[in-house]
Structure formats: C-alpha cells, structure tokens
Specification:
binds zinc ion
Length: 70
C-alpha cells in the first residue's frame, strides 16, 4: 500500500539557523527548500556564519547514537 505524498514545494519554507563562530551571534533565515542554502556573513565580524546544525560543537544528547569504528 502506497501513501501518496503530496509535495507542494512552492510554499515549503525551511528555517536555517546560523551562528557566528566569533561573536556567537545567531540568526535565522527563512528560505524556500528549493533555494541553495548559502551561509550569510556576520555583520560585525565579516566572516561566514555556520549552520548551527553543522557546527562541530553540537552534541546529540540522549545517547543511543554510536559509531562502531571497525
Ligand atoms: Zn560575528
């Protein structure tokens, strides 16, 4: 049995959280899912901000997420 997923892309918006690694300023940018998410620059530091999700300092809490290096 198939579920027909209706993907009305025109109105789909994604919220992207960015953080400046220098001053820790955080901003949220709303984009269409069809747009290429490009990193904005910090207004103060003039460096490229990083996606909070991609930030290396992020920690997944709750456990159960292991990598078994072979
Ligand atoms: Zn900054």
């Amino acid at each position: 049995m198939w579920l027909a997923l209706r993907w009305s892309g025109e109105n789909q918006k994604m919220m992207y959280d960015y953080r400046c690694t220098e001053c820790n300023t955080e901003i949220t940018i709303e984009r269409s899912i069809h747009d290429e998410p490009r990193s904005p620059s910090c207004f103060d530091c003039h460096i490229e901000m990083v996606r909070k999700f991609d930030a290396p300092s992020i920690q997944f809490k709750g456990g159960g997420f292991y990598v078994n290096g072979g």
